[in-house]
Protein 1
Amino acid sequence: MKIEFQPIGVVHSPFKRQQGAPIQPVYAQNARGTVEIFEPYRAALKDLDGFSRVWLIYYFDRAKTWEPMIVPYRDVQHRGLFATRAPARPNAIGISAVKLISVEEDFIEVEELDILEGTPLLDIKPYAPKFDSYPNEKAGWLDNESIDKKTADERFDKNKE
Amino acid sequence: MKIEFQPIGVVHSPFKRQQGAPIQPVYAQNARGTVEIFEPYRAALKDLDGFSRVWLIYYFDRAKTWEPMIVPYRDVQHRGLFATRAPARPNAIGISAVKLISVEEDFIEVEELDILEGTPLLDIKPYAPKFDSYPNEKAGWLDNESIDKKTADERFDKNKE
């Protein structure tokens, strides 16, 4: 079974490559960018401006081939890939909850952006605290991270494969 | 540009069709199910058991063709699709933060499951409060919902198209 998707837009970001890019929106406080929405999808942006945060769902187009065990940015030992948010995944889908600044006709402006320039956008969903916010969950190795690393390096970059 | 994904597993759920299924994990408190993981991906489950909640990323395989404006389950008027979590989307990707009960060799057991039986799984990510939990965001029309509806009906079902 194959599942085929097409980009609905493209991310415009100050980060041109993995090296030095923030690894999560929470480490990208001042990073502002835009998300261009292709013509057929623009009418679906209506009502989004009532939300202060949105999920961007996107394709990690520069991630290298996945491996089942990897060393995450914020740890020093190998972890099972599905217990990490690393970009090199069997289906290289990323999700980022970014701050929504404004909604224009053909793009949205966002902050706390941790996504690379040129990344193909697959979906936008509203962030809803009652569906998405669980402040008290246990977060495994991430609760005891070994390294306070906030930016990426080249370990998951397909150009370094 | 076409982006191709392959399922890494399949969801086993008490909900066989959209009609009557919970529309979000928060409305599926007692719904327990399993997510079968296909052989090539099982080794990547290591360390996941330290997390109490996980993101399931999946393909809404029974959603009908998308439209830019739809009436969401919890409202009485048309809203822009990207301001809703409706399944009929240009790229029919769903995300659900479900409670993780156990991790076995070839499946995981979950609770608060709002996904239909047989749904193709695309990815698993750990839920991390520091990356995902924003309790104070504004949620547009969802903050003033017209209807307290917790289960789906057939409005987004491709068999009713």
Protein 2
Amino acid sequence: MSILARAINDVANRLRVDPDWGDVAAYIPELALVEPHQLAIAVVTADGTTYAAGDADTPFSVQSITKVFTLAIALGRVGDQLWGRVGREPSGRAFNSIVQLEQENGRPRNPFINAGAIVVTDEILSGRAPRDALAEIVQFIRAAAEDDDIHIDDAVAASETAHGHRNFALAHFLASCGNLKNTPDRTLGTYFHQCALTMTARQLAMAGRFLVEAPDLPRLVSPVRARRLKALMMTCGHYDGSGDFAYRVGIPAKSGVGGGILAIVPGKASIAAWSPGLNRYGNSLKGTEALAQLARQMEWSVF
Amino acid sequence: MSILARAINDVANRLRVDPDWGDVAAYIPELALVEPHQLAIAVVTADGTTYAAGDADTPFSVQSITKVFTLAIALGRVGDQLWGRVGREPSGRAFNSIVQLEQENGRPRNPFINAGAIVVTDEILSGRAPRDALAEIVQFIRAAAEDDDIHIDDAVAASETAHGHRNFALAHFLASCGNLKNTPDRTLGTYFHQCALTMTARQLAMAGRFLVEAPDLPRLVSPVRARRLKALMMTCGHYDGSGDFAYRVGIPAKSGVGGGILAIVPGKASIAAWSPGLNRYGNSLKGTEALAQLARQMEWSVF
Amino acid sequence: MSILARAINDVANRLRVDPDWGDVAAYIPELALVEPHQLAIAVVTADGTTYAAGDADTPFSVQSITKVFTLAIALGRVGDQLWGRVGREPSGRAFNSIVQLEQENGRPRNPFINAGAIVVTDEILSGRAPRDALAEIVQFIRAAAEDDDIHIDDAVAASETAHGHRNFALAHFLASCGNLKNTPDRTLGTYFHQCALTMTARQLAMAGRFLVEAPDLPRLVSPVRARRLKALMMTCGHYDGSGDFAYRVGIPAKSGVGGGILAIVPGKASIAAWSPGLNRYGNSLKGTEALAQLARQMEWSVF
Amino acid sequence: MSILARAINDVANRLRVDPDWGDVAAYIPELALVEPHQLAIAVVTADGTTYAAGDADTPFSVQSITKVFTLAIALGRVGDQLWGRVGREPSGRAFNSIVQLEQENGRPRNPFINAGAIVVTDEILSGRAPRDALAEIVQFIRAAAEDDDIHIDDAVAASETAHGHRNFALAHFLASCGNLKNTPDRTLGTYFHQCALTMTARQLAMAGRFLVEAPDLPRLVSPVRARRLKALMMTCGHYDGSGDFAYRVGIPAKSGVGGGILAIVPGKASIAAWSPGLNRYGNSLKGTEALAQLARQMEWSVF
């Protein structure tokens, strides 16, 4: 058994006995139903080998992790023009805060807080039908994972739509500032479906390979763009817990309220961790801890 | 000619030659079409006599001035329970700010900023159809003015609905905090129609009589409630220009972005001033000035 | 016994049995030593008669109530120029908040929050020695009260200086924005001494007579200025509880953390209420209640 | 000539002809006197070789770059206890903002904004004389640079003290929240002297070697701590321009208002760039650009 395989198993076993599983996101009813005592780690290394432990074949709602992929798509479509509509700075606020949107006149601080991600989706949606935009997003992620068995969970999308008042507030505020090309309903319809993508940890680790930049792994974006996506994951990937994650774990990563985290070790590995219970910043409690332990054991800091 | 009649004419004549008419509200397209060079003053005194000058018979959109009437209606329906949903403090922010709504967890600072007025309308709407709620609002104002020729301008309501993203953001935010009993669409539909009420300065001065509390004028609410409504008009009636208005004019008043202001001299008079151009706080430029000059000339401060 | 005398006694007796005395201000150690179970009401009516109940001859620290007098002095010295340095709007924040000072580039929202009062004192201090500025302040208040037995409590001033970090932060911030003419130490030295003025409720009610504007009461400022001071007391006199005080009590007033409140019934009376325990806004709990009951009983609302 | 030597020269030559030199910091008078048309780049590689171009032997005021060294010292003294007094998150605000300090009850967001660095210095100062604390700071930096010719510029320290009202505001605010162990004067005296350290780009690159973690370079802190210091430099090293720097340059770095930047390529190099003119975030305009170009040319991103 390789060092990595053993490390993954060790971490998973250690964490499974820790009684604090955090709190499952309550504001999306469909997600609140998820059994909290689940944990998965999946790693794809530079040579293409996959290692996994725990519930790595259980599908979960990837939620905000899709923001990494939609950002890659939007930059592919409009390039640096996108930065006229959204910034690149950590927000210093909760993921769904509307305060900064008013203070910065409708330009979200970065593409990974909700307001910024809504703008990114709005950009992808520009000039075509929601179903076409969603098809491109799903297709991009399937291609990245080399796996066509990745789908949108309509029940989750419906649940988010029904309880998405905060996101509607953000979208209408963006519209009132002239920073939305489509109607709030249209953009959010696409956004909620995108967030409702369901993947297993194994699939997510596969989908993240294009960010690793290793000779044997697929490339979907230019090296400069891959590095920049990782830079944003590092500074903004965990909302108002980004600084802490960088300090403790030291690798670029993006979390979702479904409890998943996609982390990239440049040149070395794509990692997906998943456990549904969240910490106070809205990031997976055990997922964060799994990455911290694995990174320490494998000496996988970028610093 | 009485002292008051002469004062009103003097003020109107002086202001009409001043070349700065302010800027007509641009964010509601239908209001932006209003001819700016208009000015009206109408006063109903304690004995019931009406005095008027300028365009006192030209209808205009009363907009936020309706918030005084809807607040009276809502307090009549649920009494002090209303204050669980909305505060009584000046906001220190623009009329449409969403920042404080996040800071105060969805409880608007007072019933005269947009968020607070939406809550008041939502309360009136509770348990019945929008048309019935609107009928009560219109009926209350017609009864107050003793004039059935007061109507809602559907074109203005439609224009506000089409360009009301900021209000939709506020309503969805309220909903996300559990402080909306109806759907945002339903409450805002009622709210936009209420704001689109059209009245002349003469009608508005008549409608304000119940707040004067004079033996010969009609009473629609208890004396305590009338005083409290005037207290709120004093501290919160001009958004973030309320302190300045109290300092310069010294009587309780409520402004609307259509350029109207309803001011009350307790025990003495109900005044309506109107001129469509606004100052930087969103209050009528010449309307404010007319009230300042008239109050000074008539010694009508409450202080 | 007159109606007013009976009303004052009734209110005082009722309130003395209520077991909730609020919390004495803890952040100034010298004030924290004050026995909380004290209550005083003193009223001077338009004919110059004084009515009092409770501990009306016990001296207490008037603290922020001096801001009314220093504002009158500063306006007398520089007139409306003062408003270039300080605004006239309610703050929507706590009395010692520094947030708005940064948002408004060092121009305090109004002269009754700490930052604004520091600017007013700084203006009075401009071009002369602290002792001369303090002498003018004390002399003004003695003249207003027609009582030379009004003094500064040096122990309270020393206690505030030693524990006044928040005020030092405000003063240095003002200096960093170029809105302080003297050094922070010099201005705050004067400010802390001014706040440490000690008066009885009877003396305070006497000192407030010039704001009543009655033929038999002394006048120290012009009628326009007196009205404007009262307008500011109404909109800003109770920090972030000003709207609530206007709603419940309906007369202009200014509170201090020593538990005193000076309230003015225009044309009718100057009232001082005192009880050391504070409510959550930092205003006297029983003092506010005393004024609310007295105003209701005497029908003393300005509205 | 090596590839690196050529790259450094190319970058320096290209930047020297660009006419936009930014604006020298104006709020510290002594720094405002610095000739703006200066540029230096110095690099120490993993094998200990130094490469330099431009004004690499001209001393400049390192200012906030000292915060990296004082953080290392403070962590050495009290370890993770330090994080009870200061956070690890990007601030989303200007370097000298006081807003967040109020919102977070006196716990600065991170150790690299002014408020946080004042807390770090206060911790180092705890229990001993300012001269001893300063001696340790200077000694640490001299040891890191293996160069005793590094000194504090008293004229700069005096200039900052005389014009440091904003920092005094921060320190007094911290004290008012109980988050200062020494008096504001004492802590700021030490802080201003620490910031007034003068170094050449060559010396600064030498001093940064301990963060590189290469076998031939000196180590002053544990590997885990070195990585964590770099993580904080990445997420918080450029104030509200940190996200942009990570995106464009992709290596951990810390800037100072004197126009210097210390950047670390883990395992490979310590870089000092210097040019006095600043961009709108308060970071060296040409220094940032030099690092961006050099990092791109040498493929020195951590991502």
